[in-house]
């Protein structure tokens, strides 16, 4: 089957974590049924939300501290470790498994998409590079995503900049990831369980040694809209795409609402061990 370079572009307003994860899955289902084009969605979160990897134990979450900060928690469809979503640009890619940009193995598709991500952050003015970590992606006891090397890791001065995760399902491929624009990355340590406060403080210090934000590198804040426009241009140029600005369909909206109720806002999904 030959594929058109046309993809749908969605820029959706900030939303709670359960809605964001439900909408990503609803979009993937509609693409699988031929009811939507392959989609790049750019979005943000409100309130701040801790997302857990698909298989990450809920016991990693310090629920009392999470509630005290007014933060949400959600479990992703994709793997990986915990991310605190705030002050960031989040992207998601949803496409059929045989779409050329995501076809092949997880590593092959991840590498192709990483090329677009690399171009985007370079165009924002960051001196980034991409390093392949042999054997990355295996089991890790570290609960924090930005401390765990990914297979194709985008770094600045040796510090991780973008955290991404991918799921390959019968419905297609879903990859989403986060570009921290500004703010204190160590806030995530307030949402996770540690043996004691000294261990929490050590984890925060280690995180600052291993990860960074756009503002920390450039010395000024890049706003969400600027970052989003740069991502769109980079995906077009690196992947040969033509975007059609779209909207969430009524059917996708309804399915996402159903997934919020039955899955992403339900303890049986989020709080499983």
- How does the overall form come out from the CA principal axes? globular
Quote the distance from N terminus to C terminus.
41 Å
Number of helices: 8
Q: Give the beta-strand count.
A: 12
Q: What does the largest sheet look like?
A: 6 strands, mixed
In percent, how much strand structure appears in the residues? 15-25%
Give Rg in angstroms: 18 Å
Detailed description of the structure:
With 273 residues, this protein is an alpha/beta fold. The chain has one domain (6-270): BirA Bifunctional Protein, domain 2 (2-Layer Sandwich), CATH 3.30.930. Helices cover 35% and strands 23% of the residues. The chain has eight helices and twelve strands. The chain has a six-stranded mixed beta sheet with strand order 10-11-6-2-1-12, sandwiched between helices. The chain has a three-stranded mixed beta sheet with strand order 4-3-5, covered by helices on one side. Helix 1 packs across helix 7. The termini are far apart.
What does this entry show, briefly?
This protein is of the alpha/beta class and 273 residues long. It has one domain (6-270): 2-Layer Sandwich (BirA Bifunctional Protein, domain 2), CATH 3.30.930.10. Helix content is 35%, strand content 23%.
